[in-house]
Design brief:
The chain has 61 residues and is mostly helical. It has a single domain, classed as lambda repressor-like DNA-binding domains (434 Repressor (Amino-terminal Domain), Orthogonal Bundle). The chain is 64% helix and 0% strand. The radius of gyration is 10 Å and the shape is globular. The protein starts with a helix and ends with a helix.
């Protein structure tokens, strides 16, 4: 849910977000739906695309 929230705050489509992270669009959709166990490598790609720290990604809002 947090990844979707951050993506939508930026006005990015899943496709644009996937491009920013260098991940596949369907994989990003699976992350947002909670269907994927995300590796640390891919978490790092996600936080770099958002220009955040890993700690900030996991903070409750």
């Amino acid at each position: 849910m947090r990844v979707r929230q951050l993506r939508e705050e930026r006005g990015w489509s899943q496709e644009r977000f996937a491009d920013e992270c260098r991940l596949h669009r369907t994989y990003v959709g699976g992350i947002e739906r909670g269907e994927r166990n995300v590796s640390l490598v891919n978490i790092e790609r996600i936080v770099k695309a958002f220009h955040l720290s890993i700690a900030t990604l996991f903070q409750d809002k």
